[in-house]
Amino acid sequence: MATETRRFSGIIERAEPSEDEVQLVRQAVDARIGQLLPESEQGDALTGAMRAAALGSGKRMRPLLLMLVARDLGCTSPALLDVACAVELVHASSLVLDDMPCMDNARLRRGRPAVHVQFGEDVAILASIALLSRAFCILSAAQDIAPAVRSRLVCTLAETVGAQGLARGQFQDLHGGGKRSAADIATTNELKTGVLLGVTVEMAAIVAQADDQVAGSLRAFALAAGHAFQIRDDFADGSDSAITGKDTGKDAGKATFISTLGSAEAARRLAGYLQEAERHLHDAVGARSRTRRFVERLFPQAAPEARFVGGIVARPAARLDARIG
Predict the structure, then answer these.
(1) Looking at residue 164, what is its pLDDT?
(2) In 83-149, where do the E strands start and end?
């Protein structure tokens, strides 16, 4: 861990997160996950599935966001790298389940065959469970964090995974049907996307020992950003899978903002969520701009207006995914 921690500490001390610096932090995350999920000497399928799920060409948006928010809060603890990796393992675990035939039935993820396609459904389920277990072990053993803080981090992440978080969001997405109100869709989006972004920034605030007001502003920022990301993904669902690196058309039959309200209204809401996210982020970190610049790079074509009309949004969003991830 020492090499990745030193690299991370040196990068994060700089004034602004240039694109090269963000890439270096991402490489530090990848290297640390590789250490946390070592290859098996026997080359067993379970270990291979876990590594395939966690070490694919992911964007690493959540660990990057956690690190940048923490830096904007003045925290440079070396423990941030492991905390960020734990969040990423939970995200990877959720994607394995999302892609299963009984869920979204996706065969492609990040430009590669989904984990259940590569290793079988039984191994994919076990790998998802093992990734969750590994994430909590990493948090409980994180160095440079007081025991009470570690306990709080574990509890916060556990609540995110459970029946009031990711599991509930996926359930509603699968069983909500195609005729839901905009409010129902927003609730599902909060649970599927916003809740994990929320825990990402909340854990950054916990490690940085930020006050309740700052933590609340960060949660509101993450909630708005989560809505924006989900709408962007809904637009991208109809794009070319060779560009997005994932199966498309998986929202067919599901209620989304686009199918319920139309492309123009969905784009208007996307712009509104981005403005809301900016406002809450400013309340939390003021003029410090590491996180702000990173988020701006995730939505360059959406500022100051979400200029997404029909299928035009798909290719800009896909190019953005390739650039960040």
Answers:
(1) 74
(2) 108-109, 112-113
